[in-house]
Design brief:
Layout: E1 2-4, E2 7-9, E3 14-19, E4 22-28, H1 34-60, H2 66-81, H3 89-136, H4 141-157, H5 163-212, H6 218-235, H7 240-287, H8 295-312, H9 317-345, H10 347-377, H11 380-408
Helix pairs in contact: 1-2, 1-3, 2-3, 3-4, 3-5, 4-5, 5-6, 5-7, 7-8, 7-9, 8-9, 10-11
């Protein structure tokens, strides 16, 4: 019989392991020696010990979830308890039992972590729902749709919370998305209808513009083109490809008409160049009247110049503003001179000035009489007051006489 610290081999080749409850047969090894038998079964023990060590590392390293760890410990412990191996099986079992508190601690930590993640997930989902509900009422059709898709992806990435709360938040989120999608579809359907209506209007406008392109009735046709342009802008956009094609037609008709009008006007401008030279000569005569000296003579001359100005005819378009501005400046100077003369010769103002002179002369005569009486009476105080009053009235009288003389002149 060969003995070992944790087992022995009987003469018939039976191998026993020592336990706290006594020996237990773990198998036979009849083909080899007792030493080979013990080595075979102790190697089995070493394999179990390695598996226990590996499990300890995985549990302590939190590689396994608490549930997976508990199941693994249970499975390995069953293997250890009934193991056909020679070694300190009780020590292996104790090491496995020691993992129980570790797993319990990890389970509690996982529970706290899950609760925290759930709380964070609730906050995130409520924020997602709030933003989605705001988007549901917005009119940001392009960015809003993209953002709702992003919010859906964010929702899917978050862990679930308690079932009732999660379902309630999801219903709000889903309702907001549905409401936004319906409003968006309705908006684009309405836009599509408007674009179709705009297409019809712009087709009519383009057709009318093409009919006017060859007109030589420059004034009324140009006005009609302006009206058509206002209607074009008011019609709004048609479908893009159609809109571009219609605009090309419309714009082409405009360019044809206005190009022809500009060419015709350029020809007229050549003819009107001589008229401009005549009006420049008339301006030399007119501008010589300023500043106005003899008003009546200036008015007669200006009437003659005006008649010749009208008879000279039209001038090139680019000269109209300049020439008209210069003649208007002379006319304004003559009107201002006439107005100034009227102010000086206004009968009503002249009469008021004469009346003021008469009243002041009367008042001065009265004050002069009172002054002589005060001097005769030797009333120095009265004399001083009357002399000051007389001097003040005399100043007013001088100004009144000057104003009256201006009106008389």
């Amino acid at each position: 019989m060969t003995s070992h610290e944790w087992g022995r081999v009987a003469e018939d080749g039976t191998v026993f392991v020592k336990t706290a409850d006594g020996e237990r047969s773990v198998g036979q090894y009849p083909e080899g020696s007792a030493e080979e038998a013990l080595k075979f079964f102790t190697e089995r023990y070493d394999a179990l010990a390695f598996e226990v060590s590996l499990l300890e590392q995985r549990v302590n390293g939190s590689v396994l979830s608490p549930e997976e760890a508990s199941e693994s410990v249970k499975k390995v412990r069953e293997q250890v308890v009934d193991a056909h191996a020679v070694g300190d099986l009780a020590a292996l079992a104790a090491r496995l039992d020691a993992l129980g508190p570790v797993i319990a601690t990890q389970r509690e930590a996982r529970k706290v972590e899950r609760a925290q993640r759930a709380a964070e997930s609730r906050v995130s989902k409520e924020a997602i729902v709030t933003e989605a509900e705001k988007l549901a009422e917005s009119t940001d059709w392009r960015n809003g749709a993209n953002r709702l898709r992003e919010l859906l992806d964010e929702w899917k990435a978050l862990p679930r919370i308690d079932r009732s709360s999660d379902d309630a938040l999801w219903r709000r989120f889903s309702t907001a998305r549905t409401a936004y999608t319906r409003r968006r579809k309705s908006h684009f359907a309405e836009q599509h209808e408007k674009r179709d209506a705009a297409r019809v209007v712009k087709e009519q406008l383009a057709t009318e513009a093409e009919g006017l392109a060859d007109s030589t009735d420059w004034g009324p046709t140009a006005g009609r083109f302006r009206d058509l342009m206002k209607q074009w802008k008011a019609a709004g956009p048609a479908p893009r490809d159609v809109d571009d094609a219609l605009w090309k037609r419309f714009r082409g008709a405009q360019d044809t008409f206005f190009g022809a009008r500009d060419a015709a006007t350029a020809e007229q401008d050549k003819e009107f160049a001589a008229n401009a030279e005549v009006k420049e000569q008339l301006l030399v005569e007119a501008e010589a009247l300023v500043p106005v000296g003899d008003l009546e003579a200036a008015k007669r001359t200006m009437r003659d110049i005006a008649e010749r100005w009208e008879a000279a005819g039209k001038v090139p378009r680019d000269r109209i503003k300049e020439l008209e501005g210069r003649i208007r400046k002379v006319e304004t100077a003559i009107r201002d001179a006439e107005s100034e003369q009227w102010k000086r010769t206004d009968p009503e103002k002249s009469a008021r000035a004469d009346d003021m002179v008469t009243k002041l002369e009367t008042a001065l005569a009265r004050i002069q009489s009172e002054l002589e009486s005060a001097r005769a009476a030797g009333n120095e105080k009265k004399v001083k007051e009357l002399e000051e009053n007389l001097a003040s009235r005399q100043q007013f009288l001088d100004m009144a006489r000057k104003a009256s003389a201006d009106f008389s002149g």
